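During the reporting period the student researcher (J.K.) took over the structure-prediction task from the postdoctoral fellow and processed the backlog of single-chain submissions. One of the processed entries is reproduced below for the supervisory committee.
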Amino acid sequence: MALLDVEIDVWNRHREILEEIGVTLCISGPDTIGLCRDKLKLYRYMEKRMPGLLIPTRPLKEADPGELAYPVVCKPYNGRSSQGLYRIGSREQMELFLSQAEVKDYIVQPQVEGLVVTADVVRDREGKECAVICRRELLRTLNGAGTSVEVFKNPGLEAVCRQAADILGITGCVNFEFIEGGDGEYHMLECNPRFAGGWSSPAWRAMTA
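J.K. obtained the following structure tokens:
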């Protein structure tokens, strides 16, 4: 079981090594992992199938600083744990950032205010069984790990997660990350092809119960 994004990236490219020695790799298929680990591809793919679910995403190199609605968030398209993430509040700050950083692998998104909500999703290969556990992250570390959370039920959000998991062809576990806006709407940030916060998560306990 791969626990970290970097492990998933490596094993996804070298599945045959494990297959040759009879080891089962407990992650989704290569096409699904490729989508989940590329925030721009994920947005474009899901926008055609569940319009408005994900926060609008575009390549930073194609953005006009004068046309962006600030504040915005800039981050690598394949980043993890908030590495390389920048929040930019004005055109002047953006122009300074563009002059000092290599941005060919960066995306830009509008900054949505609200609490982070994560949903651990476990789905079988055929999609007959899909469990979802949602939690509101009250305290987070700088690299995005929830340290104080509120587990809650939301049938509507759970249904959205099941639909997204079906569209993506999820096998096993993933973690959908949302921003819960003040209007009560959930704006999806990304899909991490693993559980969030380690194996002590409520979803892991539920799956193994």
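The committee noted the following: Residues 5-54+113-208 form a domain with the D-amino Acid Aminotransferase; Chain A, domain 1 fold (CATH 3.30.470.20).
J.K. will present the remaining backlog at the next meeting.
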